[in-house]
Amino acid sequence: MPSPRRPRRAFTLIELLVVIAIIAVLIGLLLPAVQKVREAAARTQALNQLHQLALAVENYHGAHRVLPGYLDPVNNDPGLMGVTSTFTKLLPFVEETALYQQVVANGPSAIEVVVKTYLGPMDLTAPDDKGLTSYVVNGLLVLRPRVALPAGVPDGASHTLLFTERYTGCGPWPTHLNAWGVNLSAPSIYGYRAPAHLADLEPPQVRPDVEVGPNPCVPGRASTRFTGGILVALADGSGRFVAKATAEAAVPGGGMTTWAALVNPNDGKTLGGDW
Questions:
Q1: pTM of this prediction?
Q2: Type and span of the H or E element at 86
């Protein structure tokens, strides 16, 4: 006769709890690594977008012999001055020719759309992405009349900021919105819509709070969701990650931070050795 089967031994409650605890610990150890991988991937994507913007400026400059500034109206039409911006002028150079034609034909009503190239992968700070951007162009370049390269950057193209990051939405309600297609600040349905150019020389804000908090986001200043520093594109077309400590460090001779020297194209300052 066949021997009777021995009953299978089930897990005890204690054994099950131990297994669950081990799994929880492993997940806890793995989660920071996954977050770091995601941030690294997002940083690569954002840096690529900034490089695309710098390349678009290079192509625009090749076609028009000047930078795409805020002072000359889009399509040389004074009636389009309200939507004249660097980002509007770059639309044909970032594969958005149809949208550019709509802006020329319809004015402000055409800019309330999402342009994916203008939105960073980590930036979720505004209630709606229509008409907004995660980046800003250096106002000390594009708020001057008909700036040409290399004459317009006496400090050198590799030492002059062209683009960097800024939250799409910043500050307490009503939020200040970073709008790619406007020339002048204007009210909007969600908050205060501001042109996407940088004129503030204060060092960038790294992961500031969107609302009021211990580290509130200050409208107008550069700001980033990345850890430890901020992404930039330089006037020579290159892109890089600038550490917070580097941005805040004083340049040789003092009187100015590395960030301020980077934004100012004509201060005559030499950047520090860690640059």
A1: 0.86
A2: helix 86-90
